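Fill-in record for PUB domain-containing protein.
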Amino acid sequence: MTEFKKAEELFDRLLESHEALVTDHIPNGRDELPSKEDLEQYNEFEGLIHECGNYILKFKKRLLDGSKNPDAAVYGPKMKAKVEGLIERYEEVYEQYEDIIQPLFEHASLQEKDRLRREEERRKQDKKDAIEKDVQQRAQWAANFDKTREEAERAQQEREAAEKERADAQNAELMAKRREEEEKIRSMDEDTKICTAIKEMLESNDNMTIAELRMHLGKLKEYISAIASTPEDDQLRTVRLANRSFNDNIGCLPGAVLFLRAVGFQPTIDTNKSHDDMIRFIKLKEPDAVKDWDYWQTWQKRLEKYVDFLSTFEAQMPTSFDAQRLFMNQADINADHIIKLWHNTGITTPTTSQ
């Protein structure tokens, strides 16, 4: 395709864009702002008129060079007439662009810039006002801060004092209860401890289902069995009564701690804590196997018998799906029957030969 043909096709596109612009997208007056679509059409037209203008400048230069030196003329008479015709038509469109279209859109552009400038100034002023308001509020808050801080500190001190007084009273009450319980436990022999523990498990346990009782009995049995298997593990034979895992699995079962006391667990002093009357740990002491091997064997076998009894106890619980969903106060489980099973084990407290 020749350069002139390309210029003609480009000029045809320019005419189409010009017609669309002047027909549908020219503002009605200098005070009317163009729409987004108007600006897009104008930008397309302006781009085409400049692109087409590049060709026109080339053609004008060639015509000028040919007029100065006819022997070097690029165009013959017919082609020269076509080029001059295209130049003339382009200049008619460009004249409209320069005299009418461009001023309208430039004025609109200036108006749009002015509008954006005013919006920016208003935005900055709003931001400044907001900052000043915030500063004033902070100043007001700072003015009242000392007073409110003193009031808050005083109220906090009063709350802390009241909470400490309440905690001390609760602690004292709990310590007294623990001392009373410990005196009661110390007065019991092994058989009484076991019998009392069985009754607590079955008769003082209304909020536990049979399934839950079976699970906690199983955990108690597993714990004693683990000690019987590895009695040398000092840490295993020590229970911190506040330990969450212990309470979730064993301690939450009424009578379970008393059962452990019957097995031989005794309170121990925690030297790393404050010296008060609160029982925090219980521990099962392992006999000295070197000094009295027979006694140690009897002690270890006795632990195994406790495990066997707990298995027998657990086996007395109903196993049907419906029965296990019953709460203990709904179940027909006789504590005296379980106590009789305990007495049938023949477990007695071993005595050292020394």
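KEY FINDING: The mean pLDDT is 85.
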